[in-house]
User: Fold this.
Amino acid sequence: MHGRPLLATALKPRGSSGEQFAAIAHAFAMGGGDLIKDDHNLVDDDQKVFQERVQRCHEAVLRANDKTGRRALYLPNLMYPVDEIERRLEWIVGLGVPGVLVTPMVLGLDPIRRIAERYPVLIMAHPAFSGAYYDDPSHGIDPGLLLGKLFRLAGCDASVFPNHGGRFCLSGEACDGIRDGLRAPLGGLRAAWPVPAGGMNFERLPSMAAQYGPDSIFLIGGGFAFVFRRSGRQHGQVP
Assistant:
């Protein structure tokens, strides 16, 4: 549809107010971003705090969409105890939020499968707690199998992974394996989105586009501050 990779970012740092997170989400959507997700460590023990933050961020993105005519999406983090997940997810779906961020190696693969089967939401997987499985290539689980095929089989629509050349240790070949695990024919499953991340910068975009193609999502951070500046709004301002 776009003919290009989608751009995503993570809301951080932890400890910011719901109003501050909403301002960042609005600025990114106004600046041309496509997906805004909670950072993987952004969780709230208090249900009211969680709801206030999620509602503010979702509504901020909707306001930006009304102005731009685009359809940016906000994905809240769903890393909560198993007995709380469905209660929070029911509320998220009722609000009209289109998707969630999950951490399969914390929540477990089967709870992710249940979410995918029961709820009409986009599911983006974060790789936290998975590194021990592939940090040493002499043992563990191949990253293409774990972050590609297994996450996809569990029902994830997009999988974040540490791109080579960034802050982490995966090779270009390992990243190719993840990409292929997410896209290769696999029974009746649709392809999923590769989401390379981890210390990427503007200069890496051409090589990333060549490696992953237009059907991918680039998770960008501080190295891409120009995206926020395009909106003409500073980070702390409330839309």
